[in-house]
Amino acid sequence: MSSKIEDLARANVRALTPYQSARRLGGNGDVWLNANEYPLAVPFELSQQTLNRYPECQPKLVIERYAAYAGLTPEQVLVSRGADEGIELLMRAFCEPGKDAVLFCPPTYGMYSVSAETIGIEYRTVESREDWQLNLPAIADQLDNVKLVYVCSPNNPTGNLINPDDIRQLLEMTRGKALVVADEAYIEFCPSASLAGWLKDYPHLVVLRTLSKAFALAGLRCGFTLANAEVIALLMKVIAPYPLSTPVADIAGQALSDQGIALMRQHVSELVATREKLIADLRKLDCVEQVFESDTNYILARFTASSQVFKTLWDQGIILRDQNKQPGLAGCLRISIGTRDECQRVVAALTLLPGSPVSQEQA
User: Fold this and answer.
1) The sheet that has 298-303: what strands, in order across it?
2) What is the pTM for the complete model shown?
């Protein structure tokens, strides 16, 4: 019977491999450095006791506070179930399955392809250049029937910002043809690089944001789409009637208070200091070929024997994210910045690997 049920499903869904999130991949670790989460919980108290009522579709306080935080008007802000829902809402509003396409530039975030496949929209990829910047001539050649171009900046998993001049050129070449979607999930770690201020000049720019990273609220599932009012009005036609539960809106409103934003900024400065120490420590190790600069809460490093490193740390309860399968990232692992102690555990475990100076001295 079950095989007949599967036959009823859409062909593209039958063939789909679901997004392999860090939680789905699992592991039995106690040092979770694979999901780019903030390492410590931030305490909140629920203040809304109206769970018998449906929530507002777009909670007024959350929208107003995020607009103020982003330097925009409330009409330019949409709140959703994580930025992942924003990625998908844009496809549902702007792309006709079987006709339109989306484009993105690997190595990058995996949900762009999964959302396109789920909805049944063609996706095109233009690999980044060796420095992980946009290959603009190659993008220009691929823009026929493309409605959405996703650009992750800072980029996951490489950790680098995309050159703003290149984004400007991309915005010029797509004007009147496609939307450019800047995924700024990690922008709190380099706030001056945000493109939110560009919305006034580019009606076809969209910016995605989240509370999952710097705001330490990955478990809340709360994200934002920033765009001009015309785009937001179209997205409101396809969003679910009640995308945010009352407790989510309650906590999001608190996180976006002046006090909540100040706490987030304090956490960011502490985490950046931990990141720079981890980069310096890793660069001293023999098993590490290269540690890339980062503008985020994670780092990408290339190891001489990455699968051995990944497994050895996994066996010790330290869970990293393997990036070997991404274009140009052979030998690379992504390490989320944990607490000072957690990062120290990573360095200590790597120091004991065969071939490292300390382990040879001990032998």
Assistant:
1) 288-291, 298-303, 332-336, 321-322
2) 0.94
pLDDT 10s digits, 301-317: 999 999 999 999 999 99
**Does residue 202 contact residue 180 with C-beta atoms inside 8 Å?**
yes
Structure token digits, residue 195: 């493109």
* Residue 297 near residue 186, CB atoms below 8 Å: yes
Laid out side by side, the sheet with 179-183 consists of 77-80, 223-227, 205-210, 179-183, 146-152, 101-104, 122-125
Lowest mean pLDDT among 74-83, 142-151, 289-298, 345-354: 345-354
Distance, CA of 206 to CA of 228 (rounded, Å): 8
Note the residue count of the chain.
Answer: 363
Please compute Rg for the chain using Cα positions: 21
Q: How far apart are CA 86 and CA 82, in angstroms?
A: 7
Decide: 105 and 140 in contact? Cβ < 8 Å. Answer: no
What's the burial of 98, exposed, middle or buried (CB within 10 Å: 0-12/13-18/19+)? exposed
What element of type H or E holds 135?
none
Q: Say if residue 358's pLDDT is above 70.
A: no
183-198 residue pLDDT tens: 999 999 999 999 999 9
How far apart are the two ends of the chain, measured CA to CA in Å? 60
